Amino acid sequence: MTFDAILIGAGQAAPPLAHRLVKSGMKVAFVERKLFGGTCVNTGCIPTKAWVASAHAAYVSRRAWEFGIEVDGPVAADMLRVKARKDAIVKASSDGVEHGLRDLEGCTVFDGTACFEGPHQMRVGDVTLEAPRIFLNVGGRAVVPPIPGLNETKFLTNSSILQLDKLPEHLLILGGSYVALEFAQIFRRLGTDVTILQRGERLLGREDEDVAVAVAGILAKEGIEILSGIDPTEVKQHWRGVEVVWPEGSATGSHLLVATGRRPNTDDLQLEKAGITVTKDGYIPVNDVLEAAPGIWALGDCNGHGAFTHTSYNDFEIVAANLLDRENRKLTDRITAYNIYIDPPLGRCGLTEDQVRRTGKPALKGFRPMTKVTRARLKGETEGFLKVLVDAESNLILGASLLGTGCDEVIHCLLDVMYAQKPYTLLTHAMHIHPTVSELIPTVLEDLQPL
Q: Which of 43, 385, 407, 409 has the fewest CB atoms in 10 Å of its CB?
């Protein structure tokens, strides 16, 4: 069967691209083997943030007395209802993506696993598809480390843990990065004992040390146990559930979540038949406009240039701009930006302080603790700080780490100025609204000190 384009994987890049291609007059084939909406909708952003909301409701309820509110009886999570709420939100989102593609005139949906038969041929079951343009949006999955005994236990990943309808008594978590910390706080707030087993000496190895220390303090204050420098040598079943063993000791729990990283779903694509060689970690190398080979593009998690919904969607925008709009947009135009949805959230953009220091260039730093942010005090949420880094010569913003209430939204006022390539004084001269967290960004920038 011949088409103008073939799209593989219904994540956050391929579905909107399919709509753009069809609108331009192309006939497209769309292949999805399991879940429409990809990681974000089914096992990532949407379900986890639904659980973050439930966990936050429990947390605030327990603190109600601080605000002069009485709650009769202890606060308890009904996990069946917590899961049902999440499932309903996920289903609506996934169904929306699926129906949008199946009902799209000019788009033929194939259910199954696709693999290359040649540079422009793909096979889905017994059907061979051919097109001059192929777009890969195949996503990723959890890494399972080669720890002896792990595969013989009933461990959980970011996907399978979302199917729990009963609270674990004691959740062990292997890993100390974004996924691990979000689930740690979710389950602790819902009522589970949680122990984080971190291989490195501190959490969040990619973040600045002050950020990592602050986050660890926030989690510890909520009763989450954090063990660092843990290099497991064995995992085994225990009468309590599961035991993780390392040279200096061990930990037992009722459940084990493995959150030690992600890898792309490129194993079964037979990319070698398209002349593509993946990296040692399985990622598909791409150029600045996301081409992996002539007529083949890799978008989203599988290209190694961002494992976020917004980077995947931006990949779609870059491809559509170059292919359909004759607009020169490039991967290298993108500024690093993401949030970690612990509470309070961490908003990040651009360079970290450590990265700025390593450039050796003169820079300035603005810093303000959240205890000096009026809106944070009003909400009773004063954990964290605001930190912004500026180039001392050009006055351009280099990066920011905002840890505090509302900072998942506040980060955008800095990100937008960075994209506009305007000096930080654009913000110091702006009138912001009171009382907000954002109004303190100009204040932070008015008190810059040499780094």
A: 409
18 and 125, same domain (yes or no): yes
Nearest to 366 by CA among 435, 429, 451: 451
Question: Are 13 and 131 in the same domain?
Answer: yes
Among the candidates 224, 243, 260, a domain finishes at 260
For residue 171, give both structure tokens: 């959740």
Structure confidence by residue, pLDDT tens digits, 253-291: 999 999 999 999 999 999 999 999 999 999 999 999 999
For residue 388, give its domain range: 337-450
Q: What pLDDT was estimated at residue 146? A: 96
d(Cα 166, Cα 175) in Å, to the nearest integer? Answer: 22
The string of DSSP letters for 22-62 reads: HHTT--EEEEESS-TTHHHHHTSHHHHHHHHHHHHHHHHHH
Contact present, 189 and 61 (Cβ < 8 Å): no
Mean per-residue pLDDT of the chain: 97
Q: Which pLDDT score is estimated for 111?
A: 97
CA-CA distance, 168 to 165, in Å (whole number)? 9
Kindly name the residue from 170, 305, 432, 434 that is annotated as catalytic.
Answer: 434
CATH code at 402? Answer: 3.30.390.30
434 catalytic per annotation: yes
- What length does the chain have? 451
Co-location of 185 and 256 in the same domain = yes
Whole-number pLDDT of residue 389: 98
**Residues 6+ away with beta carbon under 8 Å from 291:** 297
75-84 confidence digits (pLDDT tens): 999 999 999 9
